Amino acid sequence: MLDHAGERTMLTDRGACTRLDHPDRSWLDGLSTLHVPLYSLMGDPLARTTATLIEWAHERGIAVSIDASSASMIDDFGADSLLERFAELRPTVFLCNAMEAAALGDEIDPARIGAHLTVVKHGPGPAVVMQLGHAPVEVPALTIDNVRDTTGAGDAFAAGLLVALASGSTPVAATMLGHHSAARAISAASG
């Protein structure tokens, strides 16, 4: 569903995906990054399977990215419980948007989450890049005219950022590439 500014909200139906069980180590073969949406950390057996895959990824030196995915899920689960869970899972990268950050109580300090890198997206505004031991850096988004549909922008941002990080880009440069990927997705949807 889209509002007048092209921002989307969605109704979720996780269906059979919650039944994913019996992970196999070969699922991680060839990966440089395992990207996990918050949805995959809710409800067993999926949550247990996902935690196992994250543990195996850490053992192999595979980067782990967690996307907060949904402010309503954060509200339902509880911010403090989720922050503790994230710290246990030790993501390399933690992604959220401004609404999800607010739902977490703006307690998204990388040290508290256990992430080396945390990126807070602000739609058309600058993303905030936070790294352990460094001051936060704002990375401006690209300006896009006549936006009608932002569906897929967050996923495209994550893909651009994570591919850039895996290729050796700095977090700030990777965030800019994330913005470029999101802009392409929005331009395609709005064109």
What does this structure look like?
- This protein is of the alpha/beta class and 191 residues long.
- The chain has helices at residues 46-60, 71-77, 79-89, 98-103, 110-113, 153-166, 171-190; strands at residues 33-37, 63-67, 93-97, 117-122, 125-131, 137-139.
- Helix 6 (153-166) runs antiparallel to helix 7.
- The mean pLDDT is 87.
Brief digest:
The chain has a domain at 20-115. Helices cover 40% and strands 16% of the residues. The protein has helices at residues 46-60, 71-77, 79-89, 98-103, 110-113, 153-166, 171-190, and strands spanning 33-37, 63-67, 93-97, 117-122, 125-131, 137-139.
**Widest beta sheet: strand line-up:** 1-2-3-4-5-6
Structural class, from helix and strand content? Answer: alpha/beta
Percent of sequence in beta strands: 15-25%
> What does the main sheet amount to?
6 strands, mixed
The sequence of SSEs as H and E is EHEHHEHHEEEHH
Number of strands: 6
